[in-house]
Amino acid sequence: VLALAPYSYTVTFDSQNADTAASPASITVTEPATTVSSLPSAPEKSGFTFGGWFTKANGEGTAFTTSTVVNSNITVYAKWTATAPVDTSAQDVALLKSTLAISFADGDSATSVTKNITLPSGSNGVNVSWSSTNTSVVSTAGVVTRPAFADGNASVTLTATLTKGTASDTKAFSVTVLAVAPYSYTVTFDSQ
User: CA–CA separation, 41 vs 115, rounded Å?
Assistant: First the structure.
């Protein structure tokens, strides 16, 4: 009576369209072993988390591990779970706040404003809206109307409100708008 031929079964690991497939893609179980000694390296797929190997696609069937008895050729399938996108709204708002600045016309500065101010509107999905403590001197669009000489210089606080998604923060800028210089006109009398 002839002895049975030694068995040899192949376990094929289907990475299910992974960006980086499992390695190795198959493992052979030969007599006297009844299980795989180790699993291949986990596959990688952008936007998904690997959840193990299963006897049917899409995580169906039973889980396949190093304890699973192999008694025939078998293909096992990677289980993928979509990862939730990371909300970076708060970080984006904080980053823009740290770099947010207003721009002045040539010759002007925060303590000596005579012309319109450029107020940024935002970037990287962060919206910036502006408010002014004195819109008759500096509008929310940065338009400057200098006060009369008799009224003196005007101090104005411009506040930026930065928002993205549910994240929000503010940043204030203080400026001094110079009053219009006093005028002096000369009347010349020509006696002819």
Answer: 64
Q: What angle do CA 113, 144, 158 make, to 5 degrees?
A: 75
CA distance linking residue 14 with residue 54, whole number of Å? 10
Q: What is the pLDDT of residues 104-162, one digit of tens each?
A: 999 999 999 999 999 999 888 999 999 999 999 999 999 999 999 999 999 999 999 99
Write down the pLDDT at residue 169. Answer: 96
Reading across the β-sheet that carries 26-30, which strands appear in turn?
26-30, 8-14, 74-82, 48-54, 63-64
145 neighbors 136 (Cβ within 8 angstroms): yes
Rounded distance between C-alpha atoms, residue 76 and residue 112, angstroms: 73
Nearest to 149 by CA among 176, 177, 185, 181: 181
Predicted TM-score (pTM) of the model is 0.58
